[in-house]
Each structure stands twice: as C-alpha cells, then as structure tokens.
Design brief:
mainly alpha; about 200 residues; single chain; 9 helices; Tetracycline Repressor, domain 2; about 0% strand
C-alpha cells in the first residue's frame, strides 16, 4: 500500500532531493524527472507542490539559507566558548562550506541567471546574523577580548567585509583557502583589536 504523507512533509522531501541534485549535478543537469526518480514519486506529486524546476530551486536555496543561519547562530551563541572562539568557529565554518559543500548549487547561484536570488540569500543571512554578532562583539569587548568602540557599527562593517570577500572570491578557481583565511584573520585582528591564537602570521 502506498504511503500517504502530509503535504508539508512531502514538499520538504522534494526540496531535500532537489537540493542534493543541484549540489551534486548543478542546475542545468538537474531535471524534474531526476528529482522525482531519486525520491521515488510521480511527476504529478512534484507539480502538486511546484510549478517548475526554477520554482523548486528557489525553495531549495531558501532552505539552504535557513540551515546556514541555524548553524551560524548555533556557533555564534555557544555560551560554552569565548566570544573570540565563537567568532573563529563561525569564520572556519564558512571556509569548510566553501571547500566541501554543494559546488553545483553554488556555481548556479553565482551565475547571472540567479544573481538576484543569490543577493537575497546573502542579505537574509546577514540580516539574521547582524544583531547576534553585535551582541557577541559587545560581550567580547566587556571581557577584554575585543577593542571596539561601537559593537553595532563594527558588526555591520564586519558583515559587509565578509559579504564583499565572498562575492569576489567564492567562485574563483584555484583559490588558496588557507592563505585567504590568514589574510581575513589578519584583517579581523586589526579591525577588532584582538589576536586569534595559534595561527600563522602573514
């Protein structure tokens, strides 16, 4: 007997299957048929929830943004770590994503076709993280880990710098991530009046 699932559960399953396919094969090589075949459902099930491949791609990107935010928030709000260590964990997670996660999806997002969507996702993540980062910087300043005059101003400037670095370097082939990370940490040390222990100086 065919299992009947709640619409929101089935829709989430389709989004997850689409996200895996976009990540592994890219936008152009993913089809509605490949998504439904991987999930073992009929095309009619897909079209009950989505109008097109582009529609499910939009939903997949939104889901990815939500997951990114959830992980970033968990790292930045981890009270068992110092503010400086939490900031470093947030930075390092971003590099881990760049190196290991969803190359096909990120390639599509950085292309001209989905540029507006990409910018919306980046802005959504920044808007969510801004107050959390402001709180972290204020806490770190109170503990003497950071030297910042205005945590909110610094949070906005830091996120703006990270966003622009992402825009310029995210899809650059052959990027030396270790050297890139060292340059970023050097910039953050000067911006925040701090030092991240245990890293090579440039």
């Amino acid at each position: 007997m065919r299992q009947v699932k709640k619409p929101e559960i089935r829709k989430a399953e389709i989004v997850d299957a689409a996200l895996r396919s976009f990540a592994e094969h890219g936008y152009d090589q993913t089809t509605v048929e490949s998504i439904t075949t991987a999930l073992g459902v009929a095309k009619g099930c897909f079209y009950h929830h989505f109008t097109s491949k582009e529609h499910v791609f939009t939903e997949a990107v939104a889901a990815l943004a939500d997951r990114l935010c959830a992980t970033y928030l968990e790292l930045l709000q981890d009270d068992s770590a110092t503010p400086r260590d939490r900031l470093l964990a947030y930075i390092d997670h971003g590099y881990a994503l760049t190196e290991h996660t969803a190359p096909g999806l990120f390639t599509a997002l950085h292309g001209d076709r989905f540029r507006d969507m990409h910018h919306r996702v980046v802005e959504q993540v920044a808007r969510t993280l801004r107050p959390v980062l402001r709180t972290l910087l204020a806490e770190g300043s109170a503990l003497g880990e950071f030297r910042v005059r205005t945590p909110e101003f610094t949070a906005v400037a830091l996120l703006g710098a990270l966003r622009e670095l992402h825009e310029v370097y995210a899809d650059r082939p052959g990027l030396d991530l270790a050297a890139h990370r060292d340059e970023l940490l050097d910039l953050l040390e000067r911006m925040l009046g701090t030092e991240f222990p245990g890293r090579r100086k440039i």
